[in-house]
Structures
1.
Amino acid sequence: MSKECTDKLWGGRFSQPTDKFVEEFTASIDFDKRLYHQDIRGSIAHARMLGKQGIIPLADVEKIVHGLQEILDQIEAGKFDFSVSLEDIHMNIEARLSAKIGEAGKRLHTGRSRNDQVALDIRLYLRDELVEISAYLDLLIDSLLSQAEKNLDVIMPGYTHLQTAQPILFAHHMLAYVEMFKRDKGRMEDCLRRMNVLPLGAGALAGTTFPIDREHVAELLDFPEVTRNSLDSVSDRDFALEFMSASSILMMHLSRFSEELILWSTSEFKFVDLSDSFCTGSSIMPQKKNPDVPELVRGKTGRVYGNLMALLTVMKSLPLAYNKDMQEDKEPLFDTIDTVKGSLKIFADMIREMKVNAATMRQAAAKGFSTATDVADYLVRKGMPFRDAHEVVGKSVAYCLSRGKDLPELTMEEWQGFSDKIDADIYDAITLEASVNARRATGGTALERVKAEIERVKSGR
Ligand code: ARG
């Protein structure tokens, strides 16, 4: 047997060394080294359980725990040499442990496989990241609430088809995003709940012949439950897919928001000013201030969708249980985590610092016959069926268009020409404030309703 073969932790049955390029091609250490902390934490729990069950000597457990802690310190101090020929984080750490403490180190892998080990490591890793992502979502929700509160009475045009539809409170628009991000938080929490199950103990695929105590390991690692089927435990990546699906929806929300911010900061709209610290200039056009941050977040949405597609495609025809294909789960997963965290963080700061141009928004809200529906509702309150009212107002809008007038500019005489149900009180019924504040039912844009919603979100109900 050649020396290179025996260097491998699995070298026993091999008589020729691994091809150098194959070694590089199959290695995951370059990206899975980020799991070092989880790998060590999982190994310590596993070793303690092996000791408690009398599967390995307690003296060995102490050596293993101590050795692993030293390795942890070394990695954190940047003094650990990761080796491609040791393939992945699991074997890098295990080989180093055995080199350090000998026999005892070689007992650590008793009753365990890299298949259940990696499933555990990813769950441990993602579990912490999900808590962080939830916290970033809270930060963003806070920024939105603070903009809503700062601009409580600012009226802007609400759109459908990107055509002026009805006046709304800017705060109401911000609260729409609050709802979206609250749902994203809920999806992350759901994902966390389903993911929070210990897979270790599944072994390679069928379980283990040793009298292990999985519930004890679960307790040590803070898992409320253990998985119930060994095959599923090592072949399941649903939790990563769920996270990436939830992340795709979250990025879709950020992307829609980006699109609005980009539009709102054009010279045509001028609804908002993004702080200089979130924009860049042009190398040729001196006047430019480009909304790079929202543009990039909109762009990065593509890679998060791509990551989800990548892993779905990896998984779609894999027979049970573990297949090496599944090593391809990590890069898209890590990239999704980084992208989502970065996007949320930068958005929370950018929104907090955004300046709202109340006067411009108000001017725009007054245009485009935005209170036409209010005239129709007015007629309905005076006894006209809604369909007839719609027709009457449609005619008055056409009349206005032909005269270059706006609805509030029509004289009493002109109004009465459209319907004798219209009285002088029409003028008060179609101001921007009246329009907004008339929408008082739950979910509407009325000031009192929006204030109540802000309070509701703040009190966490
Ligand atoms: N590096 C591997 C992965 O990320 C670990 C599990 C490998 N298991 C195996 N039997 N080769 O999927």
Note: The longest helix spans residues 114-150.
2.
Amino acid sequence: MSATAKKMKVGFIGLGIMGQSMAGHLLDAGHDLNVYNRTRSKAEDLIGRGAVWCDSPGKVAAASDVVITVVGYPRDVEEVYLGPAGIVAHAHEGALLIDMTTSSPDLARRIARAAVTRGMTALDAPVSGGDGGARTGTLTIMAGGSDEGFARARPLFEAMGTTIVHMGAAGAGQHTKMANQIAIASTMLAVSESLAYAEAAGLSLGQVLEVIGTGAASSFLLNGLGPKMVAADYSPGFFVHHFVKDMSIALAECERLGLDLPGLALARRLYQRLVDGGYGEEGTQALYRVYTQLMGVSDAV
Ligand code: NAP
């Protein structure tokens, strides 16, 4: 911990692919950590490093000054914050609540309102940068909520991320994350189609990635997930089912805004095929399965 950073009592709920690494950085930064996860075994490593297990989100909240959550779906966020054994019912006055799950802007605003009525502050602060960014503490963090809440959260964000931006009022972090996911949706189509074309043309896919990965088509996703597509390595960094959740939230927001985004709609449709085919627990690079099937290389989907 730096000389100016203050040690805080931090609660962390949701210790999956992202949460485990993020919580670990807070321990490394010298904060006290109270943890809860639906499946307790995922907390064992952190407990071994000094974190304290609590039996419910409410118990984490009661023991902490700041509570951070990285769970799965909006329904999990709602249960963890607004349920009877949840954070808002059990945190103490003055607590800072930070949801870093990718969730809906509307739910973020509802939680912020519920928090204010109990004398607490809530931020929505979803992240980008993948499991790698979580591991290396280099996430991009986009926050919505009050200036005061953001200022208090900043030292914690700095332990987990490198690009940290206050986007506006409650819900603005989630709206920014939707803009991020919309860009990813069409990029994943583009990466898959590029490789499908190269494969159909009989090129060496490794060579194609080497070449186009340094030219104008280069991107984080092409360079990071392209090689996994080529190796048919569909192990999850970011689950297909979570991405379908994100695109569904974005499409619902588009409907509310009267906005038609055909790239996003197509990506959701193709990813839904993966879920229907039983591939929801794979990583988002599994989109390439849809294209190999379309090319007749495999009948997997
Ligand atoms: P994950 O591995 O499924 O982690 C979610 C964790 O939350 C799981 O350990 C789960 O418990 C726990 N959880 C869910 N509901 C809970 C509840 N009601 N009470 C307590 N714990 C609960 O998923 P992830 O990849 O870490 O992603 C987490 C969130 O970050 C998602 O919203 C995702 O869209 C977003 N995100 C992910 C990435 C990425 O690259 N992975 C990047 C940016 C954002 P169990 O252990 O019982 O399943």
Note: The chain has a mean pLDDT of 96.
